[in-house]
Amino acid sequence: MSGLILEGIVLYSADLNRAKSFYRDLLGLPLLLDEDHIIHFDAGSVRLAIHRCPPGEGRQTPEGFVVFAVDDLPAVYEDLRRRGAEFLGPPANRPYGRVAYLHDPEGHEIGFVEEPRKGSDGYRRVAPLVDRYERTAAKLAA
After folding, report:
1. How many helices (H) and strands (E) does the chain have?
2. What local confidence, expressed as pLDDT, does residue 19 receive?
3. What share of the chain in percent tops pLDDT 90?
4. How many angstroms separate the CA atoms of 118 and 54, rounded?
């Protein structure tokens, strides 16, 4: 099957007001829709939806994580820290780029990655991923 496009990601929250404050006010994602049981954000290449957990149905510790691509990780890290974000550690270099992680109010892990620059060893290792990110970013900017 071809032509599939990932349109959105759905996470659950027991407290949508707290989730809205985190994603809109702290991370700066534009709010697209705010209803009683769900909120939607524009996360660039996908829509991020936060559904209210059904009453009495708590969720276990979330598995997996959401990753946002950034152009300047140290600047994003410092800006978010000034605004109250508590990261799990400082930015770290990995073979696939520089990364930093934090948790949202429900415990979902949120990652930030700065792709390796062209010409670096890291870029040569993950060039198809970086090229895809650049193509996506260019389409969104158009």
Report:
1. 3, 8
2. 96
3. 58
4. 46
Same domain, 88 and 131: yes
> Residues 112, 118, 119, 125: is their CA dihedral positive or negative?
positive
Cβ contacts of residue 121 below 8 Å, gap of 6+? 95
Q: Are strands 65-69 and 109-114 parallel, antiparallel or unpaired?
A: parallel
Taking the model in full, what pTM does it have?
A: 0.84
Cα 56 to Cα 106: distance, rounded to the nearest angstrom: 15
**Domain end: 10, 27, 55, which one?**
55
Task: Provide the pLDDT for residue 52.
Answer: 92
Q: Are residues 66 and 132 in the same domain?
A: yes
Residue 58 C-alpha from the chain's centroid: 23
C-alpha 41/C-alpha 31 separation (Å) is 5
Residue 46 is part of which domain span? 1-55
6 and 22 belong to one structural domain: yes
- Alpha helix positions (H), 27-120: 73-82
Stretch 3-23: mean pLDDT: 90
- If one counts the domains in the chain, the total is 2
